[in-house]
Amino acid sequence: MDTYRIFKRAIVDVFKLGKRYYVLFILQSLASTSAPFIGFIFITRIIATLNTNNMSLLPELIAQYLIILLILQIIGGFLEPLVNDEKSLFLRKMFALPNKKMLTMRYQQAESSEVREQLDIINRYMQNSQSSLPLIDVRMTAIIPDLIAIIWGTVLLLPLFSVDMSLIPDQFWWMHPLIILTIFIALIGLSVLVQLKTSKKSAESFQQMMSKLKRFNAMFLYEHALLEDVQSGKEIRLYNLTTKMVKNVESEENYIRGLLSDNYRRFRKMILPASGLFQIMNYLIYGYIGVLVLMGALPVAMIILLSNALSQMITALPSIIQQAMMMVSSPNELKDFYAFMDLPDEEVVGSLPVEKRLDNRYRFNVQNMSFAYPGSDEQVLKNISETFEVGKKYAIVGENGSGKTTFIKVLTRLYDPTEGSIKMNKIDARKYDLREYFNLFGVVFQDYHLVGFSLGQNVSVQPMFDKEIVLNNLDKVGLGNFVRKLPDHLDTHLGTEFDDSGVNVSGGQEQKLAIARSLYKDSPVMILDEPTAALDPLTEFEIYQNFDNLVKDKTAFYISHRLSSSKFCDEILVFDKGEIVQRGTHKELVDQEGKYRELWNAQAQYYQ
Ligand code: ADP
C-alpha cells in the first residue's frame, strides 16, 4: 500500500473510531479559536462607532461582545470534561484494536510466534504518541484549531474585495485587490514550498532523534522494571550496583538532554527561511492595508480586523504544514499496523451454512490428511485417513507429542490441513462458514481457560443464561451441590481477584466447570482433551463412569495418554509420531502385537 493511501486510511479510521470525540473537539476548538476573531470584529465595530461619534451605540455593542464571549466560554467550559471523557474512551478503543484483531483473526495466525511478535511491536508503537495511529490523533488535534483559524481569517479578509477602486488614483491600478490577492497567493505558494522542504527535513531529524531515543526508552523501562522488582534488590545490593545504576541514569539523562537541544537547534535553523518569508508577507499586507486606508478606500477601523485576521492566518498556515509533515514522516509504523490488521479474519473463511440437523448426523471423514505448523517443515500429522461414525465414542491415545491435540485442532478447523482434507457430510470442511463449523464442537482443551465473572456465566459463556440448564450440567459433572451451597449460587464470582465475595476453586473443580461449559454448549460433537489431568483418581473414575451419560448420543473424542480411560470408548485410535498406527476396541488392541499393547503394558502397573 502506498504512503498516501495508508495515511488516508489511517485518518479515516481515526476519525471513525473517535467520531464523538472529534465532533466535540471541533465544537470546543470552534468556541476557543473563534473568541479572538470575534474580538477583532467587535473592536473594529467599536472603533468605527467611536469615529462616527454616535456613542449611544457603544454600550449595546460592548454588551453584545461580552455576552458572546461569555457564551463561548460557557460552551468551552461545558465541553471540556466531555471532550476529555470521550478522548479517554477513544484512546481505549484505539489501543484495543490490535488485541481485538487477535480475537477475530484465524487461530492458526493468532497462535504463530511471528504474529505474536508483530502484535508486540505494534502495541509498543501504539503506546508512543509519536507513531502509528496515536500520531495521527496528536497531529489532527493540533491541525483542527489551525484550520478553524484559517477559515475565520479567509472570511474576515472578504471586505478587502469591497474596496472602492474609484477612490484609488489611476497610477495605483496594481493595488486592485484581485492583483494583490494573486501576488499574495503566489507568495503563500512559495512559502509553503519552502516550508514543505524545511518541514520535511525537520520531521526527518525528529524521526532520527526518536529512533535514537528508542534505545534509551527501552533501557529506561528495563531499569525501571528492575527497580520495581523486589527480588532484584538482593543482587543490586550484594553486587553493589546502586552507584552504577545511579550513574547510568545520570549519563542517560545527559545524553537525552544533548539530543533534545541538538534537535532544537537544527529545528530553529530550518524554520528560519519559511518563517522569514511568512513575516515578509505579513509586513507587505500590513503596508497594503495601511495604504488603502490612507487613500480612504478602506475605513480606518478595518486595519485592526484585517491585519489581525491575517497575522492569525499566517501563524496557522506554517503550523498546519509542519504538523502534516510530522504526521506523514513516519509511515512504517502504520504500514506494520495495517499489515497486521489485514490478516484474514475467521469470518472470511468459508461461506456454506452448516445444515441444522435434529438427529445430529454430522459425519467426519479424514482423507490423506497431513499437517505441519506454519513456519515449520516438520509434519506433525502424517497422511491420516479415517472415518468417524455418528454417535460413537472414540479414544485417542498415544505418547506425549504424538500429535493428538494437533489432530483435534485440525479436525475443529483451528488449523487447515497442509495436505489432504477433512470432510463433513461429504463436503470439504473448509467450505463451511467457520463460526457455524465451530459450533459443531464442544471442546475442553488441556489448557482450558475460564473467563472470570460468575460461575453461571463461566458455564454458559453468556451474560444471561438458563439457570436450570446450567445447574443441570453442573450436576452432571458433580458440582451442582457445591454451587447450591454457595450464598450467591450461580452468581458467585469465580476467584477473589475482582470480588471479595468470590470463590476460589480447586484445579479439579475448575476442570469440571470447563467440562460443564462444553456440555452447556450442547454441540453434536464432544471433545475432551486430557480432561482428567487435574482430577484426583476418584473424580477421574466418576467422570469415566459417567462419560456415557455426559455425552449421550453425541459423537465423542476422548484424548488421553492414560490408557485406562480408553476402555470406556467404542473404538481407540493409537497415535504414534503423527500417524494413526492402530484402530480397534480395547480388547482387540491388547490382543494384538503393537504400540497399544506396548503402552498398555508400560502403564498397566498403575491400574492394578
Ligand atoms: P500431543 O497432544 O499428542 O501431546 P501435540 O499435538 O500437542 O501432541 O504436539 C505434536 C507436535 O507438535 C509436538 O512435537 C509439538 O512440539 C508440536 N507443536 C504443538 N503445538 C505447536 C505449535 N503451536 N507450533 C509448533 N509446533 C507445535
Automatic annotation (TrEMBL):
Recorded GO CC terms: plasma membrane
Domain of life: Bacteria
Topology versus the membrane: Multi-pass membrane protein
Domain ABC transporter intervals: 364-602
Keyword Membrane appears in the UniProt entry: yes
Keywords, comma-separated and alphabetical: ATP-binding, Membrane, Nucleotide-binding, Transmembrane, Transmembrane helix
Membrane as UniProt keyword: yes
Location relative to the cell: Cell membrane
MF terms (GO), sorted A to Z: ABC-type transporter activity; ATP binding; ATP hydrolysis activity; ATPase-coupled lipid transmembrane transporter activity
Residue ranges of domain ABC transmembrane type-1 in the record: 120-329
Membrane-spanning intervals of the chain: 21-42, 62-83, 142-161, 173-194, 295-317
Record-linked PANTHER family: ATP-BINDING CASSETTE SUB-FAMILY B, HAEMOLYSIN SECRETION ATP-BINDING PROTEIN
Protein name: ATP-binding cassette, subfamily B
